[in-house]
DNA sequence: ATGTCATATTGACAAACGTCGATACATCGA
DNA sequence: TCGATGTATCGACGTTTGTCAATATGACAT
């Protein structure tokens, strides 16, 4: 039986011993893989680039559904995964949920590849 | 119905417009995601780090099965995915298949995150 | 030629994933 | 308070993924 415990810190924040800097422990590999798994779907990559290119570097779900051509629940789901991985952050303002890219997280992920 | 066509160039080689450098096309997002999907499994991340840390920067399947604790076919399968993504390369020498990390591919992947 | 050894491929299976429609939740304006 | 609107969650589904045992392939030594 598997139990999913909530993480106190997002993955990308805890990341990242470099992949090529010595043998990684299972835990380190797990954290790194979790971050990259979030980047391993074309829709999510596209979402990040759309948000980053938006006015003020932020976008709400309603701005994103049409460009990616998927349903609102699906986009919401993908954004949740990106937030869980620490690659995006969410801010509720009124009825809208605004999302931003966490550049620091991208930096840390890059550091895991190019130490 | 899905048909998988062989790629003439490996993904990581063709990569990568930066994620945060303007809206990506579906094709660009697809290529980037394909690279990161290969990095999105803890076993594969571990394999890369094991190979990079090996004598001469190379390792054969037989060197890898025990450390990751998985069967030989499974390790072979993972290595195939890494090679397909351009993150590793394979060289047959006698009975053994030696694998190396393609540092350039890691660099390019990192560039997609931190332009 | 034959046997042995390292690796790849096949077939099968459970688990995880991406997607949607339907619905619940939250927030604002009237 | 009520309806409208943006978002999240739920339940379901087909597909993809990770894994293994069994088997095939290829290379060397005898």
From TrEMBL, chains A, B:
Keywords: DNA-binding, Transcription, Transcription regulation
Top-level taxon of origin: Bacteria
Domain HTH arsR-type: start-end pairs: 24-115
Presence of the UniProt keyword Coiled coil in the record: no
Keyword Plastid: no
Chain coiled-coil ranges: none
Gene3D superfamilies, sorted: Winged helix-like DNA-binding domain superfamily/Winged helix DNA-binding domain (1.10.10.10)
Xref: Pfam families: HTH_5
PANTHER family attached to this UniProt entry: ARSENICAL RESISTANCE OPERON REPRESSOR, TRANSCRIPTIONAL REGULATOR, ARSR FAMILY
NCBIfam families noted in UniProt: HTH_metalloreg
Protein name (database record): Metalloregulator ArsR/SmtB family transcription factor
Organism of derivation: Herbiconiux daphne
Source organism phylogeny: Bacteria, Bacillati, Actinomycetota, Actinomycetes, Micrococcales
